[in-house]
Amino acid sequence: QGPEIAVTVDASRTGARIDRNIFGQFAEHLGKGIYEGVWVGPNSPIPNTRGIRNDVVAALKALKVPNVRWPGGCFADEYHWRKGIGPAATRPATLNPNWGDVIEPNTFGTHEFLDFVDQIGAEAYLSVNVGSGTPAEAADWLEYLTAAQPTALAKERAANGRQAPYKIAILGIGNENWDCGGNMSAEYYLSQLRIYSRFVRNFNPAQQKTDRMLKVAVGPGGGEPRFAEWTETIMKSWKGRHWSWDHMDGLSLHNYTVVRFPASYKSVGFGEKEYAEILQATLEMDKLVTQHSAIMDKYDPEKKVTLAVDEWGAWYAQLPGTTPGFLAQQNSVRDAIIVALNINIFARHADRVRMANIAQMVNVLQAMVLTDGPTMVLTPTYHAFRMYVPFQNATFVPVAFDAGRYTHGSITLPRVDAIAARDASGTLWLSFTNVDPNAPAQVATTLTGITARSASGETLTGPAIDSVNTSESPNTVVPKPAAVTLEGNRLTLTLAPRSVTVIGVRP
Ligand code: AHR
Q: Which residues are catalytic?
């Protein structure tokens, strides 16, 4: 099991706040992400509230999801909001050309989405259509949603069942407009951003004063020179006035964990080589965040603009037998480790990364839950997110340790990862990840700056790197109490191979 890993944490040395919005989710009209995964309709035998499945809502509530990004993704730049309002029977069937060319029934539209986020206790993060829409269409959508005065659009909203204005906490101006959002150059997108950000506003000035709607501009999708130029172009134009019609409060970054596209690595039934390669790929996130943060620092040294990693997660080959374009994949112990490694990266960059959205919430890519008709399974990704809830809005505390190395073939990775944070009640939270799939790791943590009175926590692992939860065996990968010992200011525990552990140290 190798030499003991000595960790030191001085709880009095605090850093940036870990914004709870980094635990955001992404739910696109894609595959079974919305239809079946969230929406079953009010007449379904699957228990639901106004058409939204109760099991999924209950599961997501436990994650304290801060915000949900919707309706896309690539879907957003082909979405026309008017088709998704009004009586269900009158809504037109359209196509979803990005994702399997299936029929989009539009039965899940604006009101249904806002009902869903309300049911799970999250804020709404809407992406407006820049690619195939117009500023007028997007501005009308925002007036329909947020106007408090009796305008024609506000009256239409009321006639459709919602009298009070909605709150839209976050607004995305387009999605990947360098690709599926319209193949735009950075300069062309910037001119669109200037126009949209002027007209697509919160039409409820009272709310705008107290609760600013955050605007997120489309940012890079990788580290190549064209993406460095993209970040440069958008940031250069930012004036930092922070007026409500200013360009942006955030710049997005999209980065999937994939060895190469088209994604061909299996989500289950893989070996240690694929395990190590995928984890190596996921650690690229740190390089990308560092690279784009450095460009942002040139124009915004005070770090007012958020780097919003609003699409991230593992992208594997589609499961055999599933509909092409539906991006259905399994979710294993490896995915729980991916969650921990990425959240740890975001936490270390908490002064710049104040928002992130894992792709995607239900049934698509690295999902929280997988549904199959009436059954729902909580994935290892779900459990990792649940264990990390105490880190939401906690204050980052630096951790010093020598991680050692895990080596497989030509790949060598840090063997252990760790972060710490202190919450409002003074509890110190520690997260340890043992990347090594074969050997346990002995960790001894010396705590200063806190009088530790008790420590307890949970650990998540499974019998193999590719262990998954299924409806027949839903508890193969579930958190178990961690065997932690606290003696004075010394905390010791053994990390199981391929595991994520979160410990709370109470003062
Ligand atoms: O999450 C799937 C797709 O990945 C999104 O629609 C798009 O934005 C990205 O390329």
A: 176, 311
Which of 34, 69, 74 most suits a substitution to test ligand 1, by most atoms within 8 Å of the C-beta? Answer: 74
How far away, in angstroms, is 62 Cα from ligand 1 center? Answer: 26
Of the candidates 177, 169, 76, 168, the one whose C-alpha atom is nearest the C-alpha of residue 129 is 76
Nearest CA to ligand 1 atom 3: 73
Nearest atom (ligand 1) to Cα of 181: 8
Q: Which residues line ligand 1 (CB under 6 A)?
A: 28, 72-74, 175-176, 311, 359-360, 365
Domain borders along the chain are 5-12+396-506, 20-259+304-392
E strands along 258-394, which residues? 306-314, 355-359, 369-372, 375-378
Which superfamily does CATH assign the domain made up of 5-12+396-506 to? Golgi alpha-mannosidase II (2.60.40.1180)
User: What is residue 204's predicted lDDT score, i.e. its pLDDT?
Assistant: 87
Kindly give, in sequence order, each residue whose CB lies less than 8 Å from that of residue 429, ignoring residues fewer than 6 positions away: 390, 391, 394, 420, 421, 422, 423, 502, 503, 504, 505
pLDDT, tens digit (0-9, with 9 covering 90-100), for 107-117: 999 999 999 99
pLDDT tens digits, 200-245: 989 988 777 777 899 999 999 999 999 999 999 999 998 776 555 5
Query: What is the reported pLDDT for 209?
Result: 72
Q: Look at the chain and count its residues.
A: 507
Residue 221 CA: nearest ligand 1 atom is: 10
ipTM above 0.95, yes or no: yes
- Are 5-12+396-506 and 20-259+304-392 the same fold in CATH? no
8 A C-beta contact, residue 356 and residue 22? yes
Amino acid at 59: A
Q: Which atom of ligand 1 is nearest to the CA of 73?
A: 6
Question: Whose C-alpha lies nearest to ligand 1, atom 2?
Answer: 73
Assign residue 488 a region: left if phi > 0, alpha if psi is -120 to 50, beta otherwise?
Answer: left
CATH number for the domain formed by residue range(s) 20-259+304-392: 3.20.20.80
Token pair 């079974």 is at which residue? Answer: 32
Parts of the chain with a pLDDT under 70: 1, 241-246
Contacts of residues 196-200 at CB distance under 8 Å and 24 or more positions apart, as own/partner, are 196/128, 196/130, 196/135, 196/138, 197/173, 197/245, 197/246, 197/247, 197/248, 198/135, 198/245, 199/135, 199/136, 199/138, 199/139, 200/128, 200/135, 200/138, 200/139, 200/141, 200/142, 200/171, 200/173
Name the residue at shortest CA distance from atom 7 of ligand 1. Answer: 73
Ligand 1 mean position to 461 CA, how many Å? 29
What is the model's pLDDT at position 1? Answer: 60
Cα 489 versus chain centre, distance = 35
Choose the residue to mutate in 254, 261, 310, 318 for probing ligand 1, maximizing ligand atoms within 8 Å of C-beta: 254
